[in-house]
Amino acid sequence: MIASTRDKKRSEPIINYGSYKVSDAGVRLVLERIAVETGRAVKVTSGDRDWVPSGGARNSLHLNKRAVDFHVEGWPDAQVFDLLLAKRATIFGESKGKAFRYQIIQHGPDTITGGAHIHMGIVPEPGEAYGRGFLVEGMTAATRGRYKVVDPP
Hints:
By secondary structure, the protein is α/β, with parallel strands linked by helices. It has one domain (about 15-150): Muramoyl-pentapeptide Carboxypeptidase, domain 2, CATH 3.30.1380. About 20% of the residues lie in helices and about 25% in strands. The chain is built from three helices and seven strands, in the order βαββααββββ. Helix 1 (about 25-40) links the parallel strand 1 and strand 2. It comes from Dyella caseinilytica.
């Protein structure tokens, strides 16, 4: 189990779920850690889904209730992605290798998924059908729909 880091920078992390449901406790805990590390509110833009949106993957972790899309208020997505990469052990509790079960994707302005955002999901075991680690997609028109591994698990 991953321990919480709630009191590190703010006593109560602010997660704005809006109308979205995020069932996975591990995903919610990582959102809390991101809010603590940034000192900012995290705004959820998608959570559990039972449908595939235009451009979405048919095997999306959202369909398994194991993923969230979000922004950090006042921070560009690129800055959030860089923080997640730099603080991976603190935020995710695991740093490298097979134990790293996370999928972090920065979907850029030319994404096929409907709009720029950060996606974070927890890959179930065995999770070989899912990309793990840090990926980018849609950073330019030429990379629309193309996933590039920035840092493997």
